[in-house]
Amino acid sequence: MPYQKTAAGLSEIQSRQLGLRAELRRLLIMVDGKSPVAKFAAAFPAADVEALARELAALGLIADPQVQPAVTPAGSAPTLAMSAPAAQVATPTTDAPADFAQPTRAQFNAARQAAVRFVNDNLGPGGESLALRLERCKSPDELRAAVREARGMLERILGASTGQRFIDHVRSAAANVV
Fold first, then answer.
1. Which pLDDT band, with edges at 50, 70 and 90, does 147 fall under?
2. Distance from the CA of 34 to the CA of which of 116, 143, 147, 153 falls in 20 to 30 A?
3. Measuring CA to CA, how many Å separate 15 from each of 3, 10, 104, 117, 146?
């Protein structure tokens, strides 16, 4: 199936913000909207190129160009009609947890660990790059930026309610540290 880069995919190529592993980044760059991913299999002899494509799709970096937005009532968010597992398209919010502006080290570690666990539990292997980015955060500012990014991705893939549950989970983890 041919995939095309999404706006997030194009942005990732320029910014390298997610820190994709080499094979994912290479496939993202190769995706052209015309060629089926199977065509690129020779470039990935040790990997399942279809699995890599599914991972990029789960991250919202590539999409099937034949997927058409479903008709929705005026004022509601569109959803994508997909043959694969259904996914809602939500407008990511830019709210980041403002709580814990100066967290203790224990609060920071608890929030980071909760964020990583939530991403792994909800996105599975498709969220590996994002989970690693969260895990590598060394400061509260880095973590806030990564949490904001993770929330946006969770909202794009799983809907706005999942993004809000993510924020609530991270805040709760930090608040419950003594």
1. very high
2. 153
3. 21, 9, 30, 25, 14
Of the candidates 59, 56, 62, the residue with the CA atom closest to the CA atom of residue 123: 59
Residues 6+ apart with CB under 8 A from 58: 123, 124, 126, 127, 157
pTM of full prediction above 0.85: no
Question: How many Å is the Cα radius of gyration of the chain?
Answer: 17
Per domain, the residue ranges of the chain are 4-66, 75-178
Instruction: Tell me the per-residue pLDDT of 10-21, one tens digit each, with 9 for 90 and over.
Output: 888 888 887 778
60 HSE (CA, 13 A, CB side): 26
Q: What is the pLDDT of residues 102-139, one digit of tens each?
A: 788 999 999 999 999 999 898 888 888 888 889 999 99
Which CB contacts under 8 angstroms, 24+ apart, belong to 12-19?
A: 12/61, 17/133, 17/149, 18/59, 18/129, 18/130, 18/133, 18/149, 19/129, 19/132, 19/133, 19/136
**C-alpha span between 101 and 93 (Å, rounded):** 19
DSSP designation for 96:
-
